[in-house]
Design a protein that fits this description.
With 335 residues, this protein is of the alpha/beta class. The chain folds into two domains: 5-217 and 302-329, Aldolase class I (TIM Barrel, Alpha-Beta Barrel); 219-285, no CATH class. It has 13 helices and ten strands. The protein has helices at residues 5-15, 32-40, 55-69, 87-99, 116-121, 133-142, 165-175, 189-197, 219-227, 250-261, 267-274, 276-285, 308-326; strands at 21-23, 44-48, 75-79, 104-108, 125-130, 146-150, 180-183, 202-205, 233-236, 244-247. β5 (125-130), α6 (133-142) and β6 (146-150) form a beta-alpha-beta unit. The longest helix is centred in the C-terminal third of the chain and has 19 residues, at 308-326. It is globular, with a radius of gyration of 19 Å.
């Protein structure tokens, strides 16, 4: 990508990748094969630690990824939500990551401050994922290396405030001094250039990569994403302050029905129908009628199953075309 040399140099310095693209951790899906494919395509991917609750399994997955990545950088995603990784295990997970020589982590869910000293001492860079700039400001204060800000358009957890990606990007430029990444609805190369023009070090992409050949999920699941549009996602679980954007299906209909009927909703009212096990079964069987299946507005750009390297190449081509379209602008103030 023929981006500004200084910006490109900065991104390479911070994360060691060829392109300013981060493949955000995907629960149950970000395994060694997928993350290594990201590394070999010149972008940064993350094994999701919560997908491997047994320490030995996580260690094996990291080592497998290292073998497949051919020396290219990759990281580990650590979601500190209690339902994914119990609080008492989080420190053990970070210790394992350090022992395995992983040099970058993507954290989310809770404040990573208690773990920053051990990570910094080991030379591990921390990218903390947040849903709005106000949380990024706090993350900057506690000393993370970079923040990933995912807007309301994202699949998964867009937060409670539902701030859009375009606003997040411009506001982050005004408020932050550390590198920031922009995500939420990003699935086209032109958006990468737009984000970087607004000050971002790069972008976070999730939904656009779900149809990569290296994602182990059933072809029926991927085909459902291809057939879906940007209008086929919905929001639920706001009632328990855990907003999720996911593919519309019977599960989201049921959750929304419960949220309308009950004056006060407890997470226990929802767990039987939103458990991760149900989502995993959808990935395994291709039946997308049940489960909370995270997907964002960038479904608009999901069009076929192909190797991850091909998707990245398309993004790179689109980004370069966007750069060419800006050449005629010259100075904004001079006609």
């Amino acid at each position: 990508m023929n981006m500004n040399k200084n910006t490109r140099k900065n991104f390479e310095t911070w994360f060691g990748t060829r392109l300013p693209i981060v493949a955000g951790g995907l629960m149950w899906l970000s395994n060694a094969e997928y993350v290594a494919a990201a590394a070999n395509a010149g972008i940064l991917g993350f094994i999701t630690a919560a997908s491997f609750p047994d320490d030995n399994d996580l260690r094996k997955e990291i080592r497998k990824c290292r073998d497949l990545a051919d020396g290219n950088p990759f990281g580990v995603n650590v979601s500190m939500l209690p339902k994914l990784i119990p609080g008492e295990k989080t420190e053990d997970v970070f210790k394992l990551i350090i022992e395995e020589g992983v040099k970058v982590v993507e954290t989310s869910g809770r404040n990573p401050e208690p773990y920053l000293p051990m990570l910094k001492e080991a030379g591990v860079k921390v990218i903390h994922k947040v849903p709005a700039v106000k949380y990024a400001i706090k993350a900057q204060k506690i000393g993370v290396d970079a923040v990933a800000i995912v807007g309301a358009e994202c699949g998964g957890h867009p937060g409670m405030d539902m701030i859009g990606t375009f606003v997040n990007a411009a506001l982050a430029l005004e408020k932050l001094n550390i590198p920031f990444l922009i995500g939420g609805g990003v699935g086209h190369g032109s958006q990468i250039i737009a984000a970087m023009a607004m000050g971002a070090a790069g972008v976070v992409i999730g939904t656009r990569f779900l149809v990569a050949e290296e994602i182990w999920a059933h072809v029926g699941y991927k085909q459902a994403l291809i057939e879906a549009t940007e209008c086929d996602t919905t929001l639920c679980m706001q009632s328990v302050r855990n907003t999720v954007r996911s593919l519309k299906n019977k599960t989201t209909d049921k959750v929304q029905q419960i949220e309308k009927q009950l004056e006060v909703v407890d997470i226990q009212d929802l767990l039987p129908i939103v458990s991760g096990k149900i989502g995993w079964e959808a990935y395994a069987t291709g039946d997308v009628s049940h489960g909370i299946l995270a997907a964002g507005h960038s479904l608009a750009f999901v069009n076929k199953i192909e190797p991850l390297s091909h998707i990245v190449a398309s993004l790179e081509k689109e980004a370069n075309q966007a750069l060419m379209r800006t050449k005629h602008l010259g100075s904004f103030c001079n006609e």
